[in-house]
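Record 1 of the preview.
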Amino acid sequence: MTLTLHDVVAVLGPADKTLVAEIIATGATQAELAEAFAWANNDEALVGEGRHLPTGRVAALVDLLRSDEEEPD
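->
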């Protein structure tokens, strides 16, 4: 099922409209977004648990989330 604005906000909280549109355009699911959010915010812990690095849409979402963090306000 394709993400909606509500789905994205449920995972990320308030977010920039451009970021939300880019996330929705990936075709990811809410579960994939939640996984990407976890990787973007705590990758060392996930690697420490022995999880494999994200691939596919999850990896693309991680890149989007991290690039949004790097942009100045």
